[in-house]
Predict the 3D structure of the following.
Amino acid sequence: MSSLYENISLTPHNSMGKKERAGLTLMALGLLAFLLSFITFAGPAMPFLSGIFFTVAGGVVYSRKESRWSTGSMLLIFLGLISFLFLIFRPSALSPLLISLFSFAFFVLGAAIYIFFRFRKGEAGIRNNGITFSPLTRKNGALAWVLAVVITGFYIMLYWFPEQIHGLILAVDPIYGALFGKSGLPESNGGHYNPWFLYGFLYTVAVLLMGSRFMLKYRHNRYQLLRTASVMFFQVVFAFFIPNVLAALNHQELYFHYFWPLDYDVLFPSSIDTLMSGDSLSHFFFWWTLAISFLAVPVLTYYFGKRWYCSWVCGCGGLAETAGDPFRHLSDKSLNAWQIERKLIYLVLVLITAITALLLLDRSFDLFNESTSLAFRKGYGFVIGTVFSGVIGVGFYPIMGSRVWCRFGCPQAAILGILQKYFSRFRISTNGGQCISCGNCSTYCEMGIDVKWYAQREQNIVRASCVGCGICSAVCPRGVLKLENGPLKGKTAIQINRNEVKILDEEPIG
Amino acid sequence: MHILIIGNGVAGITAARYIRKRSSHAITVVSAESKHFFSRTALMYVYMGHMRFEDIKPYEDWFWEKNRIDLLQAYVEKINTDKKTVSLSTGNDLPYDRLIIATGSASNKFGWPGQDLRGVQGLYSLQDLENMETYSRDLKKAVIVGGGLIGIEMAEMFLSRGIEVCMLVREKYYWDNVLPEEEARMITNHIRDHHIDLRLETELKQILGNEEERVVAVETSKGETIECGFTGLTPGVHPNIKVVEGSPIECRRGILVNEYLESNIPGVYAIGDCAELRNPPPGRKAIEAVWYTGKLMGKTVARSICKEATPYRPGIWYNSAKFLDIEYQVYGSVAASGQSAENEESFYWEDAKKQRSMRLVFDRESRKLLGINVLGMRLRHNVADQFLREQWPVSKVLQHFNALYFDPEFYRNPIREMLKKFNAECNETVKALDFKAVKHLVFEN
Ligand SMILES: Cc1cc2nc3c(=O)[nH]c(=O)nc-3n(C[C@H](O)[C@H](O)[C@H](O)COP(=O)(O)OP(=O)(O)OC[C@H]3O[C@@H](n4cnc5c(N)ncnc54)[C@H](O)[C@@H]3O)c2cc1C
Ligand code: SF4
Ligand code: SF4
């Protein structure tokens, strides 16, 4: 029987006054002017300036008193974005320094102001209002698709067509110069631009900006504050400064917080050779990553669960937890998705283990010819390292949630997950019978774990994929969930609500 | 055996699931509101844009067929106990061997003038939610009448859309007919911090409409007129027992049931909000319109139907709620403002700035624990239950507080401050044991 309300889709009806309409019209005019400045080849200054004028004027008219700050900041963000477009499509239109200032300064400042006023005002608390309505954050929202295409496109340019974004690459070079004392564009590169500083820079800015947003949003929750401070620290120091300083010193770039198998090629014979023929730092790095992979991983995971890495240290996790936060609810919670996840992630782990082992054997016993081993290395690097973890992993944030890579692909997560499930003190405790099956925990679990499935049957949650972000616990309106470490014995037991009814012998049905 | 359940709320569905677990009886759940079970407690989050409707369904849609629980969306008009059938709105009759009535509640309306205007409603059903959505269009201001749990949820819903809210509350402080005064006062302040125009000791006199029969204002007992485009009526709920009208099933306010949750007609049971216990166990009420009661009753009745007659023994009372940003939990008995019994004393600690508090109620003579109230703090259910069941003396409870404490990691544990106050007030020198020393209470299994 069909149901009247089964498919209700509630969307708020926003009303718009005359002023707002006038404002929006002006802003549209501004946009048009911008477009003009792209297609006219006779010097872009006039349309560009009038574009700025109309947009700002429109914004001023549009903004209501109470939202003036957020509208203003949106405008700044918008201007920043427009300048980015200039950098990409008409890099020679204005001086790179000027335009780079325009874009980054406007964008970062605007975003910072927006974030501050959006999340700082009022009392602290869970503020997920309107997430399922907004075209940017709702499932299959129009803006979400736009953003996904933009990010995916950016990754594709970054990996395969860096010449297409050389304006952007040039624009960050002054920043590189200011930080590391020289140009990051090697002259010997035969006209090729190196996009990786741009990438690292944007990545770090994203983690910092969106990390600040996250901290404001969850400022009442100390677990979230500490955890976010930690991923921001690792991003800035271990992912940004140390490798760049090393590179500036003409040393090989070393990422001390990535290790095998996420950093899949450290154990490839070619890398081992490079490291072992390097200086003492390179030697140290080699033993360090080995020690982490095979000692620290099991020990730390035993005591704290997978979270010590995935939501406190890792850079992929760091981006997911900060920039990806607005999209965390988009992860698929169905049983189906879980089945796919289990197949895929272990497949990737088997793949990288097999390839690493084969290559190491090859080194000793010379199993393959040069081109075969190269194909192995390049093949994995392309399919998993580039397409899966980069293009899909980040590009699909607005469509499939923030942890697509971590959930379906990351071999490090696979190992940590097995350890977490079977050899770890970590669990999420369910608080007796307090769950009201509201669904907040499952909805906001970025790993797509149906947390309430366990909570409502009064059982602790022990899942290989849980990264211990603690958001389920934060959004639970009834205080049901607590991430904690305790004895292995009985960690998955149904929480016995030791009262007289004792009807708690529930096994899964279904 | 065919088991027919009327109502797919938490009570009916829990019964169905547990019967399935224990037997292979045929099970049919008939319900009018929606085909699939959804969480009524989460309706607010759909309106606020935290979740979509499909996110508040506790089970995926394939679950029912897989577990051979038949769902039928229809309204039951009449129960024919002598023929053992029910009559559906579709004109069909459905036979049953055992009948479980789990029809829930309906919103109270106290005959106020104007209560049937458009834009005047409570919040209970999906239909109510849809209507709220409709009337929110262009809405500038809403007035909410009644200081209960649904009222504050409604207020939060409107706030999330930037709609101004005025609340009329009869009591001296918000919900002080349930909360002790200090807690009620903290919540009252918190409500005002959120810019809700909270009017205490104020009642609704009448609701005024325009020529289109839509609400335009309310008039209060204090003679004020407050303009509004929506009036929320949330002065509580009553058992929804329309379905038993004209049948010999005995009712008072709810459907009367014995300790096996069976009505006066053998083979006909009632559970959840619509049931009224003839002899409620000590410390519990005859009608408890809460989620947890429905769940426990569902589990219990499933046993009895599966040939293991089990009396309903809900154990120690507990409940929880959230007032805007402040979480609330209660275990055992904590009397409302001014209602404490002679023998009761309480220790109350509060951090007004952080909006956290804890109250331990205990027996004046024996010092044994009777109840716990917390705001802005989470406690462990099992441990609280154990302390209350075993009637731990209050100082021992504080000594073992770290077993009770359930806030997320790295939160500031308030036990030192609490003990400072407790020791000063009660002339004691209690020290808290650290977590290691009490963890057997937590992890013991
Ligand atoms: C907004 C809101 C928030 C709440 N929050 C909390 C909370 O935080 N904590 C808490 O403990 N409790 C809360 N409650 C109360 C809790 O939701 C109820 O106690 C619980 O849902 C009752 O479950 P039930 O199965 O008895 O009835 P219901 O959930 O009401 O289910 C009964 C079903 O039977 C159907 N039905 C009725 N008559 C017929 C008929 N004749 N034929 C066919 N179908 C029929 C109804 O349409 C309904 O779908 C809240 C309630 C509301 C409305
Ligand atoms: S289960 Fe909770 S802690 Fe684990 S990943 Fe999901 S939301 Fe984060
Ligand atoms: S958020 Fe809390 S109350 Fe809601 S379903 Fe999850 S555990 Fe239960």
Q: What stands out?
A: The CA atoms of residues 134 and 141 of chain A lie 7 Å apart. The first strand of chain A starts at residue 426 and ends at 430. The pocket of iron/sulfur cluster (ligand 3) is lined by residues A 435-441, 451-452, 455-456, 476, 478, 480-481 (CB under 6 Å).
